[in-house]
Amino acid sequence: MSTETSALHFTVTAAARRVAPEQRKRLLADPGFGRIFTEHMVRIDWNRDRGWHDAELRGYAPLQLDPAVTVLHYAQAVFEGLKAFRQKDGGISVFRPQAHAARFRRSARRMALPELPESVFIEAIDRLMTIDGEWVPSAPEQSMYLRPFMFGSEVGLGVRPSAEVTFLLIGSPSGSYFPSGVKPVTVWLSEDFSRAAPGGTGEAKTGGNYAGGLLAQAQAAEQGCDQVVWVDSQEHRWVEEMGGMNLCFVFGSGRNARLLTPALTGTLLPGVTRDSLLQLAKDLGYAAEEGKISTGEWRTGCADGSLTEVFACGTAAVITPVGAVKSAHGSWSVSDGKPGDLTMRLRRSLVDLQRGVAPDPHGWLHPVAL
Ligand SMILES: *Cc1c(COP(=O)(O)O)cnc(C)c1O
Q1: Chain segment 109-147, per-residue pLDDT in tens
Q2: In CATH, 10-174 is 3.40.50.150
Q3: Rounded to the nearest whole angstrom, what is the distance from the C-alpha of residue 245 to the centroid of ligand 1?
Q4: Nearest CA to 317 among 184, 177, 142, 147?
């Protein structure tokens, strides 16, 4: 079957063997995160002569790669992570796909990869969700995690932007990040490793940034911490982000609570959740701003009680409260170490909007036309 909607021509080949409904139900009962995948995927090829071509929706299957394919050696690759949610009325909506498509283009540009038009990015998601819609779970806190990615697929060991590129989109039903309730994490301030430097790739969603952070993550685990907090690479004191999530700080309490998140300096990842929460906090009547906060201010603010809540935010876990901080120079807790009021209020607002339970004044939900 072939169909035409965007500028690209999609070939559609349904998977030969389908998963039985009872088996799908069993898998969706406890999907975990990033462990199970739906039955189809989208693949689109690019090369220097033809541009984007051969778009296809087909069965999920392993790839066959030449050992000399460029991504395996020089890591020219970018990815996105976004979610589709089962709505109250049974439909499926994707949260801010336009914002993710735009960031995917910016990441690609930084990594010398071709930019996928935003309309094609969204059409790929619509097509995958239409054929695999039954895999979108409906339990509270469950969703469909969508992973679009692309990589240099030219064969050859020469160092240059790949003349051939492969785009793929896969879907992974995911459960609650916190199966037994939202639990604050303890973070490790990494002062000897750096995630990103000015002029580097910190702003791009690219796997290499994660590979470079794994050793610090292992060090955090050795210290009994759940996550690493990254600081700037020059003065080693300005807070940037946490693992794969952005950070937010709450000063004061009640109606006077004020939200602060580190400004986008070029070395942190511009999170869509971060951007959404800045807006939602303003919608709820709180002051919310981007700025600078040092590790020293974090520590003294907790000691004198002016800094009342800290949380991390990102697509996968939505909002994770930070309860305690450890570093080579000492440890401290954030308030009483429990999830803060504004933290939980923002979490609820965002989750309700994503599920279609609360209004969507900014048009962030993209309904999949089934
Ligand atoms: C993806 C990501 C985030 C969070 O971005 P969201 O769009 O909110 O999911 C934060 N930091 C890093 C390093 C990331 O890769």
Answers
A1: 999 999 999 999 999 999 999 999 999 999 988 999 999
A2: no
A3: 5
A4: 177
